[in-house]
Design goal:
DUF6112; Integral membrane protein
């Protein structure tokens, strides 16, 4: 017996998929832009001796990497759960 979620049973499932895909794209683009900006600020503030700004930029860089990793891991986790659901 195959059990799989019927995404067609929900009205507007195609629209929901496109909205989720667009939100994921915005999260990844924002994370990459944050990563670039924080790396530049970290380099400039570290070179000029402003260690407080360098610490905040390093924290922002780590947050951007974490956001990108979590958004990618969320998709992988959902695919894993759907795969496990088909085997039950």
């Amino acid at each position: 017996m195959d059990v799989f979620p019927d995404f067609g049973g929900v009205g507007g499932a195609a629209d929901l998929r496109s909205i989720v895909g667009a939100l994921l794209m915005f999260v990844l683009v924002t994370a990459v832009l944050m990563l670039i900006v924080c790396a530049i600020i970290w380099a400039i503030s570290g070179a000029s001796g402003n260690y407080q700004a360098a610490t905040k930029a390093r924290t922002g860089l780590l947050v951007a990497v974490g956001a990108a990793a979590l958004s990618g891991a969320g998709v992988a986790w959902l695919n894993f759960l759907l795969d496990v659901g088909t085997r039950l």
